[in-house]
């Protein structure tokens, strides 16, 4: 059964079986469930490398989705969101930034893109998941992945009660783990 599921996923992603087993994904775990990110290594290699590095170090664990805007997106990855001071959520990062890697990929539902300040080359750790097509963001923000499983989780997060800054009243913490597709499928089988 696992091999069949892997073949189906590989086929949908245009991969052969060997590529699917070796291809890495990120699994974002929240109280609402898991979201799985497929990376766009060719289109945004530096952003993918940065996200994987931060995830592997545990940087994202305990951060929250601190900005949720219905009919638009959910944003997370700010280390300031780990504490209980909601007023400091939003401007935090890893202490460095990476240059933009714009591509021809549209900001359609499920796209994962890097958040930044007004400077296109200011992305660091914060990212957002588009819940509704938002092509006005194209060539302004770096797309580095897509949700391939768990968009219903993003839909739940985007609809939580929030304050005037779009910060959820009840924290939506995350834990991010990098693994192969094969490991992900095996973890689902054991559930």
Describe this structure in words.
- The protein is an alpha+beta fold and 191 residues long.
- The chain has one domain (24-179): Cyclophilin (Beta Barrel), CATH 2.40.100.
- It has five helices and eight strands.
- It has helices at 2-13, 17-22, 45-56, 151-158, 181-189, and strands at residues 24-30, 33-39, 65-69, 73-76, 111-114, 127-130, 143-149, 175-180.
- An eight-stranded antiparallel sheet has the order 3-4-6-5-7-2-1-8.
- The longest helix has 12 residues, at 2-13.
- The model has no long low-confidence stretch (mean pLDDT 91).
Quick structural overview:
By secondary structure, the protein is an alpha+beta fold.
Low-confidence segments, given as residue ranges, are none
Q: Name the helix and strand elements from N-terminus to C-terminus, one letter apiece.
A: HHEEHEEEEEHEH
CATH-wise, what's the superfamily?
Cyclophilin-like
How many beta-strand runs? 8
* Structural Rg: 16 Å
Number of helices: 5
- Largest β-sheet summary: 8 strands, antiparallel
Average predicted confidence as pLDDT: 91
Distance between the termini: 14 Å
The strand line-up of the biggest sheet is 3-4-6-5-7-2-1-8
Fraction of residues in H or I helices = 10-25%
Reported by name, the CATH topology is Cyclophilin
Second-tier CATH architecture: Beta Barrel
- How much strand? 15-25%
| CATH top-level class | Mainly Beta
What is the global morphology?
globular
- Secondary-structure class: alpha+beta
Total tally of structural domains: 1
Descriptive key words:
191 residues, 5 helices, 23% strand
């Amino acid at each position: 059964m696992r091999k069949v599921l892997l073949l189906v996923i590989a086929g949908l992603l245009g991969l052969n079986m060997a590529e699917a087993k070796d291809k890495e994904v990120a699994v974002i775990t929240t109280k609402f469930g898991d979201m799985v990110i497929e990376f766009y290594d060719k289109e945004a290699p530096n952003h993918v490398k940065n996200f994987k590095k931060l995830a592997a170090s545990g940087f994202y664990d305990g951060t929250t989705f601190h900005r949720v805007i219905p009919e638009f997106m959910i944003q997370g990855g700010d280390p300031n969101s780990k504490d209980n001071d909601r007023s400091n959520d939003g401007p935090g990062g890893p202490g460095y930034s990476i240059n933009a890697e714009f591509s021809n990929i549209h900001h359609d539902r499920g796209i994962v893109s890097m958040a930044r300040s007004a400077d296109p080359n200011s992305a660091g750790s914060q990212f957002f998941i588009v819940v509704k097509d938002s092509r006005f963001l194209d060539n302004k923000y770096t797309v580095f992945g897509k949700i391939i499983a768990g968009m219903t989780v993003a839909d739940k997060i985007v609809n939580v009660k929030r304050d005037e800054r779009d910060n959820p009243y009840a924290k939506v913490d995350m834990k991010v783990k990098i693994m192969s597709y094969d490991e992900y499928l095996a973890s689902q089988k054991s559930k």
